[in-house]
């Protein structure tokens, strides 16, 4: 049994298999998952686990060089936008890019996995692109 890091075996495997520029999606409970993209469903009930809880755990275990958010997050979910800005501008620095929500959904088609949280607030979704540790 692992002592540290992510205990969920599916998430641990996905992160271990990521190469440079591969990406995963952390999604709210409502984001559609494209056919053929593996879904790791963590949702237990509305709000559990939260978007922030899941991103925190993944960011502690993954080298992230770029984060993509839907432009709509700025107006529709300022709390999540501020959280992402704080999280990825400090020690875990990464480029943050924005696109329309429709474009965001198209990008999810190429994700290695979509990790579904229980978050029930609008636009609480992000694409986390893998970097390298050297």
Instruction: Please count the helical segments.
Output: 5
Largest beta sheet, briefly? Answer: 6 strands, mixed
What gross morphology would you assign?
globular
Q: Please give the domain count.
A: 1
What CATH architecture label applies?
A: 3-Layer(aba) Sandwich
Specify the CATH homologous superfamily: RbsD-like domain
CATH class: Alpha Beta
Report, as a whole number of angstroms, the end-to-end distance: 28 Å
- Strand tally: 6
Q: Which regions contain 5 or more consecutive residues with pLDDT less than 50?
A: none
Assign the structural class, choosing from mainly alpha, mainly beta, alpha/beta, alpha+beta, or little secondary structure: alpha/beta
Give the strand content. 15-25%
| Rg over C-alpha atoms, rounded to the nearest angstrom | 14 Å
Helical content, roughly?
25-40%
Let me know the average pLDDT: 96
**CATH topology assignment:** RbsD-like fold
